[in-house]
Specification:
Strand order of the largest sheet: 1-2
Structural class: mainly alpha
Distance between the termini: 63 Å
Largest sheet: 2 strands, antiparallel
Order of helices and strands: EEHHHEEHHHH
Oligomer: single chain
Number of helices: 7
Helix content: 40-55%
Length: 217
Amino acid sequence: NAFTGHIVQAAPRTIKASALIDPQDESVIYAASTDQVSEWYLNYKNLKFGDPLIEREPTPDQICAMSTRVIDLKAEPYADFSLLTPYGRRMQKVLRHRSWIPQQDGSYQPVEVPGPADWDTWKACWDVYEVILLMLRRPVADGQDVGSLIATPISLEAYLQNFQTLVKENPGCWHLCATAEDRCRAEHFPRIARRLSEEKGYPPSWSDVFVYAANDD
């Protein structure tokens, strides 16, 4: 302040998870610092030997929201692909597709719903999602120089290939496939994690969950 001689600091910027990764998550999050964003990019570069392609590059807010969800809150790595899109907010406004709601008489009523309209659009959203997961690291444990991956590349590839096979085997049923996949990451992942925890006697990694889901019917 020029009159009092005091320096007035701006309040930290906040973001909402409901606008970035999950419409049902009302968490308010402090936006990431420049240093934190640089660290996420360095994590990816050390793993993939380069920066993500422009069309796969997430926004800092998207990474921050997922980091808070998975690392700080220890929740499942879920993101709604009507929100987590390439180029951030620019794509969110156009991602809608026709789905079908069963009626009591056995017929189906068409409705417009948010989300990828086809495999290619879904895959573009997945690519951004994958980059984010490969950028994040768990807190460093004893004996480690760097934190472990949230999900390994091979576990993400296994899950992706399984879903691609499902889509190819069910042509004309994209809305059902996309809904099932979304519910898998949102609802079934926590069930799988609990099941694996009981079997193994310790909490599984999300890599274990992705691989289990890839082989699940």
